[in-house]
């Protein structure tokens, strides 16, 4: 069981420039209710220096929760978070490092940082282990070729974009990515398009990245270059105020990350969201 660090114990850790390295730990848990409001700036700066997740524990009525990476209100939530971190420590560490930095960056710069973090993880053993297990449990099958993974229809100043690959739950395949990029670029270039509505055909909006394509790119630097050239979010974010996403069913990974850029979102009662990337290493 993880015992959260109180204000007295933290006062000793504050003396160490890199407490995670000195203590050889994969995470820290802080007893938020033990701290004094006057310590907030000092604690926040200490957290930013740590290369591992910092969990806040407690109800925290002093505003410290906004400084930590994630908050646990009780011991059960803390134990669940610790198990996830211990299972994929490198993925969790890079997640919090990227998240802390990108929250202070312009969108374009944040997308570059996110891509670099993603590429780093794809070169790691945690992702390789997950990929090997996935391929063992899901032998390669021939995929149905979709001529128009993205359908675009215009009616005067209104543009409708439909994710049109229901057979694979509108997974973000290369063809889907490129189709969305072209559609979003059109919006960015054509000021006469006043409103854009994005839908998904079939039982769900999108099940996220196409797992059958994961791990196919061996040159991770080239993969990063392609993402920067063909990333749909880059063009969507530029004109977010014109977009409305209409969600239903599963919205997994990119299936919620893309809609999150839009000014407006609608969702049917059966809509659910999941970000499974940590479990995938």
TrEMBL record:
Enumerate the Gene3D superfamilies for this protein: 2-enoyl-CoA Hydratase, Chain A, domain 1 (3.90.226.10)
According to the entry, every stretch annotated as the Enoyl-CoA hydratase/isomerase domain falls at 161-281
Under the heading Pfam families, the entry gives: ECH_2
* InterPro entries membership: ClpP/crotonase-like_dom_sf, Ech1-like, ECH_dom
The record's annotation in CDD domains points to: crotonase-like
Q: What family, per the record?
A: Belongs to the enoyl-CoA hydratase/isomerase family.
Q: What is this protein called?
A: Enoyl-CoA hydratase/isomerase domain-containing protein
Q: Which species is this UniProt entry from?
A: marine metagenome
């Amino acid at each position: 069981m993880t015992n959260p660090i109180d204000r007295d114990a933290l006062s000793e850790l504050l003396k160490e420039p890199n407490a995670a390295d000195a203590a050889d730990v994969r995470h820290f848990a802080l007893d938020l209710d033990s701290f004094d409001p006057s310590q907030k700036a000092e604690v926040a700066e200490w957290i930013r220096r740590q290369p591992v997740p910092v969990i806040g524990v407690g109800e925290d009525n002093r505003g410290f929760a906004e400084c930590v990476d994630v908050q646990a209100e009780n011991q059960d939530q803390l134990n669940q978070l610790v198990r996830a971190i211990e299972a994929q420590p490198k993925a969790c560490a890079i997640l919090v490092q990227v998240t802390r930095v990108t929250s202070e960056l312009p969108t374009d710069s944040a997308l570059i940082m996110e891509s670099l973090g993603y590429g780093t993880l794809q070169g790691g053993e945690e992702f390789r282990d997950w990929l090997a297990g996935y391929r063992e449990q899901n032998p390669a099958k021939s995929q149905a070729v979709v001529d128009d993974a993205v359908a675009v229809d215009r009616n005067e100043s209104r543009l409708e974009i439909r994710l049109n690959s229901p057979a694979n739950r509108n997974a973000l395949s290369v063809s889907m990515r490129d189709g969305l990029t072209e559609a979003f670029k059109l919006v960015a270039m054509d000021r006469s398009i006043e409103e854009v509505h994005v839908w998904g055909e079939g039982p769900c909006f999108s099940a996220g990245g196409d797992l059958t394509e994961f791990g196919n790119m061996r040159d991770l630097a080239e993969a990063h270059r392609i993402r920067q050239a063909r990333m749909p979010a880059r063009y969507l974010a530029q004109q977010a105020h014109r977009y409305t996403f209409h969600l239903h069913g599963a919205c997994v990974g990119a299936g919620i990350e893309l809609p999150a850029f839009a000014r407006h979102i609608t969702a049917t009662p059966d809509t659910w969201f999941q970000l499974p990337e940590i479990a995938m290493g």
